[in-house]
Amino acid sequence: MQKIAEKLVQVMDECAYVQKDSENKEQKYKYVSAAAVLDKVNTALVKAKLASIPEFTVISEKEKATSRGGIWQLVTVQCKLQIIDADSGESVTVISLGTGTDPGDKAAAKAQTMALKYAWLTALNIETGDDPEADDKTDKQEFVSHPVSPTGLPNSSKVDEICKLWQDIGWEPSALSVYLEQRFSKPVNQITEVELTVILNEAKQYYQQRMG
Questions:
Q1: Cα dist. 22→91, 107, 167, 202 in Å?
Q2: Domain topology for 1-144
Q3: Over the stretch 124-183, which tens digit does the pLDDT of each residue have?
Q4: CA-CA distances (angstroms) from residue 75 to 34, 117, 125, 160?
Q5: What are 205's strand-pairing partners?
Q6: For the chain, what is the radius of gyration of the CA atoms?
Q7: Residue 80's closest CA among 112, 50, 56?
Q8: Cα separations (Å) of 76 from 112, 115, 158, 170?
Q9: Residue ranges of the domains in the chain?
Q10: How far, in Å, CA of 127 to CA of 120, rounded?
Q11: d(Cα 180, Cα 175) in Å, to the nearest integer?
């Protein structure tokens, strides 16, 4: 893994910071768009002869009622991003989650874009001072809150903390058990405290990135 590691260090150096290029007018903050991240990352990847292949899996898809009686789609997507060295054939894989909400058919596309963006931000430790994706229409929408109680998860204070963070981020805690099984390739009742700590730390990092 030495050759791809050396190339990734080069890419990380070239992509250490991405300038905020967009503005969320509803919540009045600036953020880095997925287009800006991908443009800078792609340039560095081509220079280093690194290829990337994202694989998306829908973790959950459900309807979400609004306070005005409308029905929006809420989709959570997992992105498994494989980075391949064209010279050595070595590869590494990064996993990230993204959510998308839309009254039409764009929820999945939004979720994929968000998941891919944060996969690169996490993989390359890109500094942005960023926050969640901006969508004026979504930000203005008010949703009816329904408590969610995930099932099949081990009894652990870490699970409660992860579920709380997922709710704050906008992900569905009910999808956690499926995500854990896919992430660690084993039944959810066999997930260890160490593995839960990994997920908890990732959720904390993601939440901090969103909150700026």
A1: 32, 20, 25, 25
A2: Enolase-like; domain 1 (3.30.390)
A3: 988 875 444 445 555 555 545 444 334 456 567 888 888 888 888 878 777 787 778 777
A4: 18, 16, 26, 22
A5: none
A6: 18
A7: 56
A8: 8, 9, 21, 9
A9: 1-144, 147-212
A10: 11
A11: 9
